[in-house]
Automatic annotation (TrEMBL):
Organism encoding this protein: Streptomyces plumbiresistens
Region (Disordered): 1-41
Alphabetized PANTHER family for the sequence: THYLAKOID LUMENAL 17.4 KDA PROTEIN, CHLOROPLASTIC (PTHR47485)
Keyword Nucleotide-binding on entry: no
Name assigned to this protein: Pentapeptide repeat-containing protein
Length: 230
């Protein structure tokens, strides 16, 4: 969505650069043979279908050219894991630990997640489409060429994160925290709803629509110390 920002841009950018979407080309896959995750495990060209990984430890594991469908990730420990050229569909879980992980050329489709930890993570060429994610922790993460499409994000935390070429398309954003975040070429115009709880002063580098500007007027005025009275 590389449209013209015009007066809708925060920070004076005339045009926002579009995010590059992942191009996942999967080879023929083999079904996962079962068993639990292993720390530093290497999973290549596998299909995980309806697999229950709840409570398991896959810290440092690498998933390359993989498909995960309908897998349970409740309290699964995937700290510092790497997901490369993979598609995750219908995964669900509460308290999944993906802190300091890497997602590159990944599609995450119709996820149902709560309290997922992605702080310090690196997301590059990632498409998050559909589903609902509550209390997404992306503090100090780095997002580059990431598209959120048709999903609901409840109280996502981007505190201290760096977002570059990130798009929000037909998303509901509720209670967003942008405290100390750095934004560059972030396109919020396509968001179905936009509610910023903290860090509205960090919107420099983003582009919003005129309607969104009106919706945020009260928050922006409060941030600037402006009293609005009838």
């Amino acid at each position: 969505m590389g449209g013209t920002g015009g007066t809708s841009g925060i920070g004076g950018a005339a045009r926002v650069k579009a995010a590059r979407r992942p191009e996942v080309r999967l080879p023929p896959l083999e079904p996962y043979g079962g068993g639990g995750l292993e720390p530093d495990g290497d999973y290549d060209g596998l299909e995980f279908a309806q697999t229950d990984f709840a409570g398991q430890d896959g810290r440092g594991a690498r998933f390359m050219d993989c498909v995960l469908t309908g897998c349970a990730l409740d309290e699964t420990r995937l700290h510092h894991a790497r997901f490369l050229d993979s598609v995750l569909t219908g995964i669900r879980g509460v308290g999944t630990d993906l802190a300091e992980s890497t997602l590159r050329d990944v599609e995450l489709v119709d996820a149902r997640l709560g309290g997922v930890q992605l702080h310090g993570a690196v997301l590059e060429r990632v498409l998050i489409r559909g589903g609902k994610i509550d209390y997404l922790n992306l503090r100090t993460a780095r997002l580059k060429d990431v598209v959120f499409q048709g999903c609901v994000l409840v109280e996502p935390d981007f505190g201290g994160a760096r977002l570059e070429r990130v798009e929000f398309v037909d998303c509901e954003l509720k209670g967003v925290d942008l405290s100390a975040a750095t934004l560059k070429d972030v396109d919020l115009r396509g968001a179905a709803s936009l509610e910023i709880a903290r860090g509205v002063d960090r919107l420099a580098g983003a582009v919003i629509s005129p309607a969104q500007l009106m919706d945020l007027a009260a928050v922006l005025a409060a941030e600037m110390g402006i009293r609005v009275e009838g």
